[in-house]
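Two entries, shown back to back:
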Amino acid sequence: MQSSPMHPILVCGAGGFIGTHLVHRLKSDGYWVRGVDLKSPEFGGSVADEFVIADLRDPIVCRDVIDRPFAEVYQLAADMGGAGYLFSGDNDAEVMRNSALINLNMVKECSRAGVQKLFYASSACVYPEYNQIDPDNPNCAEESVYPAEPDSEYGWEKLFSERLYSAYTRNHGLVVYIGRFHNIFGPLCSWIGGREKVPAAICRKVAEAENNAEIEIWGDGCQTRSFLYIEECLEAMLRLVNSNFRGPINIGSTEMISINELAMLIAAIAGKQIQIKNIPGPIGVRGRNSDNNLIRSKLGWAPSETLRRGLEQTYPWILEQVIARRAA
């Protein structure tokens, strides 16, 4: 592979939603970027200086793409999706195996190559189910993660990988930053096909619905979440990697909302009246909300974008996809 300017950056999972946005942000900030993923970005090409289509489950691939002491590596690659994919139980073995293989390979090769800084994208799914039973009062403070009891195998793998990266920090001096993502959303996200997350799925349902039509929501709709707009997520990641704090740290919003309320908010943005039909389906924990005390303390910053503002950017984009799909 060709030589690069100083401060080269590697983004793993660069074909995914967050990875695509991250590459754009890094390029706009003037960095040389190599992206790697199983696939190119779904909605247009990558702006990375180099984009390698390869499988990071293969240790030889990892050795090839980490061919220099990158100044920064962002490890976003994982087998993931929305509740229908992660919480049905049908994909547990593949989710754990695929993501664990990627992280085992990545940490070894980053350590071998002398990577200067490594960011690992963990998840709020690491938090114990017993602290997220009350939808109005979930506890997702960073220190509450133990005693461990994630509600999904996805969460268990994320927690294992946090410990893996931390062990390499202790034993091999690898500089690792860990961010726990809380439901990141925005344009260019998956919006159909079974791996889409709640905001995109509901945006699609509202976009497809006639006025006063009924849309289906899994569970009783009283389960709560907070959702973070993609630009805020990128800002948090970059601030963390350029700080003296390693994490783990929550990267999420504190604006908690029920799923039924989320559907009504999206309908209001769309200018539609809808009826909600709650049906059985995988929902994960009853309540989840980011605790941002630590990020304020350590970084002197926390996300502030409102959910509505983010949805006002996201819904029109998904509406465009729905219209294009109908016309195809």
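entry 2 starts here
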Amino acid sequence: MVWLFVVAIPLAGAEPRLELTKQEQSWLQQVEVIRLCTDPDWMPYEGIDEQHRHSGIMSDFHQLWADMLDKPVVIQVTDSWQQSLQYMEKGKCDVLSSAQDVASRRHYLTVTDPFIFYPFAVATQPENPFIIDLMPLMDKRFAMVEGYAGIEIMRKRYPEIDLLLVDTASQGLKMVEKSKVYGFIDTVPSINYQTLKHGISLIKINGVLDEHYAMSIGIRKDLPELVSIYNKAIAATHDADRQRILNNWLSLTFQYHFDYSLIWKMLLGASVLLALFFYHYFMVNRHNRELQQVNRQLEALSHSDHLTGIPNRYYLHQVFENELKRYQRYRHSFSLLIIDIDHFKRINDSYGHVVGDEILKKLAQLLTENVRENDVVGRWGGEEFLILCPETDAKGGRALAEHLRLRISQTDFSLGTMMITASFGVTDYRDDEVLEETIKRADLALYQAKHDGRDRTIVF
């Protein structure tokens, strides 16, 4: 079945037409449509919805580029990513929505210049230690979606890695939840989206790796003109348009304003040469400012939990490293608090995941408002939160934990007769140990608090 989407997205500014060669123009004139294959289940990047429409970040990018090319795009609906690759190899598609340059595809696929980069992340069960490098875990089994370029990237970096290939991301995440594999490897936005969509709560993102996806477009090997055309469309894409598309799917806010009247006043009030000079200067300066703002927004995105808005596990790890350096230089102690909402599964089962998400957001706000300015509150994963307290020993950490525990138990979360309580595990950093040992101690203290009846603080 073939579906056609109509493109009507305005560009960020007065975009010039793409400067195509005669050969490229001739190629476009000879084709009626561009046939596009996509991953039907890799949200928020891309997917096929229930109405068989292309959806996700990549759909917005392809709509924007189709508008630049003034050529309609036809979606070739497939059942899986593997089938989309087969369609490309058999010539049933001209374009693969997103792709990477991997050796196994080069006989039928060429890729464009990359336009977005996303690091790989690892989701495991909550009790597992934070992952900095996969090398010490080569005795564990990890799951990845079959056909993804990331498989070749990971096997090249870790030749001994034990990978189980699954059909969908949700299948891989559920296998982690059921302890059938140690971890699932994908990107942070994809893992977050799939866990929320399918109600997978007994996992958390436990590490962000140095390896990353370089998002490019895949083009059939026998269509070199189309590769060149898409590279020009990528180069002509405004940073503001990139940010707007990311905002649509990753919940960032970016205000984009431009006053064209200023340019017209300059053109009317100056000579042609002077106006051109100032116009060029203004555009370059504006582009640099936009690029800096986009980079700041993207950096904030990589550091924040998409549901609660507080720091995520990746950012917490960076804070740990900085605090460890301060300790090694000045010997200033610091403590860790790990907080787990008691009986959170009961809340999800009784009231649904939407209410559960609201509880997580309200608790994140409560914790943030009741710590010191230099304390760092972050979401550790699932219903767990972590607080790093600089200049604080275990005794001070316990005092803060007890204050927060009482505030939580006294707060009305609008669940009728059901009260919300939390258990706390507290420890402080000890000389000459790695951070994983400190985190493990706090985890053990939290486990003891849960075992002793919940709604209590245990200091290791």
